[in-house]
Amino acid sequence: MLMLPITAIVMTLNENLNLEECLTSIKDYVDDIIIVDCFSSDNTIEIAKKYTNKIYQNKWINYSKQYLWAIANTDIKNEWILRIDADERWTKEGFEELRQIIEQNRADAVYVKMKIFFMGRWIKHGGFYPNYFLRVYKKSKGKMEDRWMDEHIKVAGKTIISNIDVIESNYDRQKNISLWTDKHNKYSTREAVEFLIAKHKLKEMDSVANIFGNKTEKKRWLKEKLYFHIPLFLRPFLYYIHRYIFKLGFLDGKEGFIFHYLHAFWYRFLVDVKVYQIEQLAKKENKTIPAVIKEHYGIDV
Q1: Three-state SS for 297?
Q2: Where do the domains of the chain lie?
Q3: Which pTM was predicted?
Q4: What is the spatial distance between Cα 239 and Cα 234, in angstroms, rounded to a whole number?
Q5: CA 21 to CA 290: how far, in whole Å?
Q6: Which of 107, 193, 198, 230 is the most buried (most CB within 10 A)?
């Protein structure tokens, strides 16, 4: 198969466990690979050098700001861009379908299905599959939202929902569950900050929320207009019931039970704890919400 005129952008921080398989899965199909690294202390850079000489480093703030920096400051060869995380893998079949979409000029952006593996099991239920993410788009038609969490590409053009499966295997390959909790602890901080920004109207939020839009826009609308308005600490319980019972998460076996339980009663619950603590500290210390976030989490809102 001839290479596609696509620039793949991969952002990294200590991804020695994931990066090799990620780049191996795309190297024969895209003709341009860019690595944007956040000063990794492992051998991430050495791995990257085997696949590309386009390696950049930039201080991390959050995902969207790092990605926006990459778009503005790196040598992007092509109009088509593939956004791929280090723990994601593409398949030959996926690229074959993508080639047809591009050659037939059927869209300006492409949604793929994320296929999550956790503790050796495909998480097929609970609303996690098919879960669509926009991963390929024309640079002139798309722009990343500037958000702390759950960022998406906004597209001024035609989108298509493909049958492409992209495998997310980070939590399958990394056998230590502490890696999952460490990563989601960081996610929970960003999620708490984003919720507080919306609740207290700390700044204008960039959003694709639209109940009548595509799957991503509807999902964002439900999060901002419904989930955000449910009381703290009640939200994780309702989330778990929705995912595990009504979305049939119980069909994913023991591994699915662990996955869905951690998502609700560890990750989502931790978000609410951080929101509660920040608001309580602001009252107790007579400080603004942004001041407390800056002091305790080092984040400038």
Answers
A1: helix
A2: 4-172, 176-297
A3: 0.92
A4: 9
A5: 40
A6: 193
